[in-house]
Amino acid sequence: MNHDHYSDDYLAGLLSSVKNVAVVGASVKDDRPSHWICGFLLGKGYHVFPVNPAYEGQTLMGQKVYAHLDDIPEHIDMVDVFRPAQDFAGVVDEVLALSDRPEVIWAQLTVRDDTAAQKAEDAGLKVVMDRALAVEYALVRRAHRQGPAQLDIA
């Protein structure tokens, strides 16, 4: 996939198709974007699983913080990555090691590693990089207002 551009339908389709979201790099500090996105997602009705070994066992907006993805006891549909770009490949490896893999890996602004993305896509996952999930969420609302049009998420 060309990660220089994503169609609105592709992004809306992904965000509409997921319910359980693991936020890797989540912070309990309320001045961090990874903290804000947890609240945003919770407010939109997603189930949020914060992941950060530094805060393991603590709570973030009422949600237990997990050390690693494989500690989460439920199926995860999407992994939202708030880690530096150089750590993205490690997150992809962690995702690929799961026996119950998510369908989507979303890397926040400035997080891009095309080699790691290709590895995930070769394993059947969908990948979005260098995009702010909260900004793109408006596409979901637009898609729902337009009715049951076929969304292209292939």
What does this structure look like?
Helices cover 33% and strands 16% of the residues. The protein is globular and about 40 Å long. With 154 residues, it is α/β, with parallel strands linked by helices. The strands form 2 sheets. The chain has a 5-stranded parallel sheet with strand order 2-1-5-6-7, sandwiched between helices. The chain has a two-stranded antiparallel sheet with strand order 3-4.
Total of DSSP H or I helical runs spanning 4+ residues: 6
**Main beta sheet strand tally, sense and closure:** 5 strands, parallel
Low-confidence stretches: 148-154
Strand content: 15-25%
Rg value: 15 Å
Strand order, biggest sheet?
Answer: 2-1-5-6-7
Order of helices and strands: HEHEEEEHEHEHH
Distance from N terminus to C terminus (CA atoms, Å) equals 10 Å
Total beta strands: 7
Mean pLDDT: 91
* Principal-axis shape: globular
Classification by helices and strands:
alpha/beta
Roughly what percent helix? 25-40%
SSE blueprint and pairings:
Layout: H1 8-17, E1 20-24, H2 33-43, E2 47-51, E3 59-60, E4 63-64, E5 78-81, H3 88-96, E6 104-107, H4 114-122, E7 126-128, H5 133-136, H6 138-145
Parallel strand pairs: 1-2, 1-5, 5-6, 6-7
Antiparallel strand pairs: 3-4
